[in-house]
Write a structure and sequence with these properties.
Layout: E1 11-16, H1 21-31, E2 44-48, H2 51-62, E3 72-74, H3 80-87, E4 90-95, H4 100-114, E5 117-120, H5 125-142, E6 145-147, H6 155-165, E7 173-185, H7 193-204, H8 206-214, E8 236-238, E9 243-247, H9 252-265, H10 277-288, E10 294-301, H11 304-320, H12 324-332, H13 334-337, H14 349-354, E11 355-366, E12 381-390, H15 392-410, E13 419-421, H16 423-427, H17 432-438, E14 442-450
Parallel strand pairs: 1-2, 1-4, 2-3, 4-5, 5-6, 6-13, 7-10
Antiparallel strand pairs: 7-11, 8-9, 9-10, 11-12, 12-14
Length: 453
């Protein structure tokens, strides 16, 4: 695997931030596919600030086997020259260094400058949209494909909405789909501290995000049959899935809207850089079955007590995240302000292994699109689908990121030449859903029924 002269080696893949909490799990997942039959991943390198920590991460990821001879490269997000040198030695870079609002821009800049492809696990809307505004045109020109949110944020939401949408067979059409996320554990749920930091920074950067959007041309809005859904109560008891739920202020709905806007502007999807006729037909057929819908995400628990805990945590982040001193407290003491849900040391291996998620998608719509204009436009049909899988931050996120990477490496001709995009519009017509199912993330149709109007 390692070249005698690592300074001249060209890698298929580099994982940046490989010694971080999530990074070491990404390394472990990538090693499963390194050099295996039919895998496009033949050469791999790990990059970060501290070589000894990278070595520890590699040893941990490879255990109980001895670590393979994978190059460890020194690179620092505060040193643009080291990032550019790194990017010039690889085809694809996976960025696990967050918070991305703080550390992500130099990495994207180096990838676009070098003309290579880039994936990350960011869940920060302001960062993602700023990268699109700043680098999209150049990325298109040089052939650099930049895709954020290639982890639990926001691939399950994107693929889940498309999976639910495709169950609405003409003349049936969806009007809205509400996702309900349930986190489960046999021991104790401990969240990814990067998710917590993203939420804190999301509050801090809300003003910049709105300012950025006002400065850019408005995106196309999809035509969705029927009226927009009502706001609904703050706390909802969703009997269909047995959960008490509140709105989840994650990136998911924003990322989905970006994909639907891009699809509205490109009804057949994005053209591949060197597609076969067969794939062109497949892409067009796939997108013809995806129908837009209003989309939102809620997080649920089986008890009202769990909901109150979520509300208190949200209040802390919403209030303290608006000013610098408050943010410093939130980031310094995550365990206190999240009521124990997040901690700087991260979860134990046992806590990771025992955790899982279920994400229900309750789609409401019309058995016939013409009914959207009748009787006040009240939906008369419901389709419930579900995605489920292992712990979200350290198991599901690496699975998704690595499968997206393998698609980029193995199916590059079928993907857009370059540009900054959300994951759904890029990976929707590929075999990503099948790959996820093969690696422990299931997609199921739970029920289809007609409602009384």
């Amino acid at each position: 695997m390692a070249n005698d002269d690592p300074q001249t080696q060209a890698f298929d893949l580099v994982i940046l931030g490989a010694s971080g909490f999530t990074g070491k799990y990404v390394v472990r997942e990538a090693l499963k596919f390194l050099g295996t039959p039919n895998s496009p991943l033949k050469t791999l390198a790990l990059a970060g600030r501290n070589s000894s920590k990278l070595a520890q991460s590699l040893a941990w990821a490879a255990a109980p086997s001895p670590p393979p001879p994978i190059p460890l490269i020194s690179a620092d997000v505060s040193d643009p020259s080291s990032l550019l040198a790194l990017c010039r030695r690889t085809k694809l870079l996976l960025n696990c260094v967050g918070p991305f609002r703080v550390y992500g821009d130099p990495v994207v800049a180096a990838c676009v400058e070098a003309g290579i492809d880039y994936l990350d696990i960011s869940g920060e809307p302001e960062f993602m949209e700023r990268m699109e505004a700043k680098y999209h045109e150049k990325a298109v020109k040089v052939g650099s494909l930049v895709v954020s949110a290639c982890g639990f944020d926001s691939v399950p939401a994107e693929m889940g909405l498309m999976f639910n949408s495709r169950q609405w067979v003409s003349p049936a059409v969806p009007n809205r789909a509400e996702a309900y996320l349930s986190l489960e554990s046999e021991t104790r749920i401990v969240g990814n501290v990067g998710t917590y930091e993203s939420a804190v920074l999301g509050v801090a950067n809300a003003g910049q995000l709105q300012e950025l959007r006002r400065s850019r041309p408005k995106r196309a809005r999809p035509a969705i049959p029927g009226p927009p859904p009502p706001k609904g109560p703050l706390i909802e008891h969703q009997k269909s899935v047995g959960l008490w739920a509140i709105k989840l202020p994650s990136a998911d709905a924003i990322v989905v809207r970006r994909t639907l806007a891009t699809l509205t502007e490109n009804p057949h999807g994005l053209q591949g850089v060197d597609e076969t006729e067969e794939h062109i037909e497949k892409r067009k057929n796939f997108w013809s079955t995806v129908k837009p819908a209003h989309f939102g995400v809620k997080i649920g628990t089986k008890s009202l007590l769990g909901i109150m805990r979520l509300i208190v945590t949200g209040l802390f982040i919403g209030l303290f995240g608006q000013f610098a001193f408050g943010r410093s407290l939130l980031l310094k003491f995550p365990e206190i302000f999240s009521l124990g849900w997040f901690r700087k040391t991260g979860p134990t291996e046992e806590e990771v292994r025992s955790a899982s998620f279920k994400m229900w998608f309750i789609g409401s719509g019309y058995s016939n699109g013409s009914l959207a204009l009748q009787g006040g436009g009240k939906p008369d049909a419901e389709i419930i689908t579900r995605i489920s899988g292992p712990e979200i931050g350290y198991l599901t996120t690496p699975i998704i990121l690595v499968q997206c990477a393998l698609i980029v490496l193995g199916q590059r001709a079928n993907l857009p030449k370059g540009g900054v995009y959300p994951p759904g519009i890029v990976f929707g017509p590929t075999d990503l859903q099948e790959r996820l199912q093969e690696n422990g993330i299931s997609f199921e149709v739970i029920s289809k029924k007609t409602l009384s109007r």
